Amino acid sequence: MNIQIIGTNKSADTRKAQRFFSERGIKYHFKDLSDKKQLLTKGELNNITQIIPIEELLDKKSKEYTKRNMQFMVIDYEEELLNNQLLFRMPIVRNGKKVTIGYQPEIWKEWILSEKNTK
User: Fold this and answer.
1) What does the angle CA 80 – CA 66 – CA 84 come to, to the nearest 5 degrees?
2) I need a labelling partner for 117 at 20 to 30 A (CA). Which of 5, 86, 108, 109 fits?
3) Per-residue DSSP letters for 98-115?
4) CB atoms within 10 A of CB 35
């Protein structure tokens, strides 16, 4: 498995995702969106949006979304997400070409079972 968890340490769901994989002894790479050196690139975003529509990646319940009054704006999702990555729904969890957003333990369990069955 090649797990990448994308989120922030302030996100409760991101911490739960980290705990989920840690408890199962699965190593993962954590990309912290609050660290300016670890931001998603346009290419990474394009890979994710091949699986999940870009509109679903924007967290309309986030403090950042409300603070900027984005509910009253017509926005370019890609531009907004790349310029302010705290607007992402978190966590984004990648396993190769598979992607989930939010806390999705049932799907992650399927990934683990699938990995075990291929060995």
Assistant:
1) 25
2) 5
3) EEEES--HHHHHHHHHHH
4) 12
pLDDT value of position 22: 97
Instruction: Tell me how long the chain is.
Output: 119
Q: What share of the chain is helix, strand, coil (3-state, %, to 5)?
A: 50, 15, 35
**Of residues 33, 54, 37, 42, the one with CA closest to residue 99:** 54
CB of 47 within 8 A of CB of 35?
Answer: no
Residues in CB range of 53: below 8 A, 6 or more apart: none
3-state secondary structure 24-54: CCCCEEEEECCCHHHCCCHHHHHHHHCCCCH
Q: Give kind and range of the element (H or E) at residue 64.
A: helix 63-67
pLDDT along the chain (119 residues), means of 10: 95 97 97 92 95 94 82 84 93 96 97 84
